[in-house]
Design goal:
By secondary structure, the chain is α/β, with parallel strands linked by helices. 33% of the residues lie in helices and 28% in strands. The strands form three sheets. A six-stranded mixed beta sheet has the order 6-7-8-3-9-10, with helices on both faces. α5 (131-142) runs parallel beside α6 (161-176). GO terms for molecular function: ATP binding; ATP hydrolysis activity.
């Protein structure tokens, strides 16, 4: 395994913000850490990157102890932080050369500019780059020394849909080059699109780990019916509907029905609402996603 994490712990003010988590990541895999803000994703990654010292546990990257052999590990990893501060008054070419000087070896500047679609911005000051261009530059800097493992901490946060998809293509290309990619995100679509496997994290713990499709299959339901009632009703009333496997009440007040017979569920739900005088506000149906896996495990949405 390229990455091995065992019983990792981090404590702040007497509280375990990372609570004895363990997982492994294979060479060439895109592994996602999915969870809401405050789940412990960034703290976990910073311990793996050598930026924070764990209070317990073990981390191995490419056969090296990431706690006791930090210098050896730093030569093997590239890091794109959640918030990357760059030198605004350097050009794109200059900042790539600067970062490359920190390592024993570096890739060709021209190769990096071409690979990250920054050739036309080589002489542009960093402060004049768009958000998407800055993110592409941040990842180019993370791979300037040709590392085996890339850490990407919420790489598409704040980007528009096109820039986000452009970055997805870059992440996929990193995998195609044989690199191991470890990324955190709170975008379920991003995790489903990119990741070979996903660990879902909440309150410092890993609550589920599998491929995106595998996690969704664990729901035993392929469809979701969602609506809001002015007055919550007992879950048993909906559990009896044809096809419903599970009923969840989200923190935002929505009632969520997991069903494997969508049409039959709707045909029973509408008459039930009419008979009881309920208004099904915001009624919608959709295919089950990782959002529903998280909701099933925690009663919360990823965005809460």
């Amino acid at each position: 395994m390229m990455i091995q994490v065992k019983d990792l712990v981090k404590i702040y003010n007497g509280q375990r913000v990372v609570d004895y988590i363990s997982f492994e990541v294979a060479q060439g895999e895109i592994f996602g850490l999915l969870g809401p803000n405050g789940a412990g994703k960034t703290t976990t990654m910073e311990m793996m990157e050598g930026l924070r010292t764990p209070d317990g546990g073990e981390i191995s990257i490419d056969g090296h102890n990431a706690i006791r052999q930090r210098n050896a590990v730093k030569e093997r990893i590239g890091v794109q932080l959640q918030s990357t501060a760059l030198f605004d008054h350097l050009t794109t070419r200059e900042i790539i050369l600067l970062y490359g000087s920190f390592y024993a070896q570096m890739r060709s500047v021209e190769e990096l500019l071409a690979s990250f679609d920054l050739e036309g911005k080589a002489k542009t000051l960093v402060k004049h780059l768009s958000g998407g261009q800055r993110q592409r530059l941040a990842i180019a800097l993370a791979v300037v020394h040709d590392p085996k493992v890339i850490f990407l901490d919420e790489p598409t946060t704040g980007l528009d849909p096109k820039a986000r998809r452009d970055l997805w293509a870059i992440v996929q290309r990193l995998k195609d080059e044989g690199r191991t990619v470890f990324l955190s995100t709170h975008y379920m679509e991003e995790a489903e699109q990119l990741c070979d496997r996903v660990a879902i994290m909440d309150s410092g713990r890993i609550i589920a780990l599998d491929s995106p499709a595998g996690l969704i299959r664990q729901l035993a339901s392929d469809s979701v019916v969602e609506f809001v009632l002015s007055k919550p009703q007992p879950q048993e009333m909906f559990q009896a509907l044809d096809g419903v496997k599970e009923v969840k009440q989200a923190e935002d007040g929505a009632t969520v029905l997991l069903t494997d017979r969508l049409q039959s569920t709707l045909l029973r739900l509408i008459p039930l609402a009419d008979a009881n005088g309920w208004v099904l506000s915001g009624l919608r149906t959709r295919t089950a996603t990782l959002e529903d896996v998280f909701l099933q495990r925690t009663g919360k949405r990823l965005t809460q």
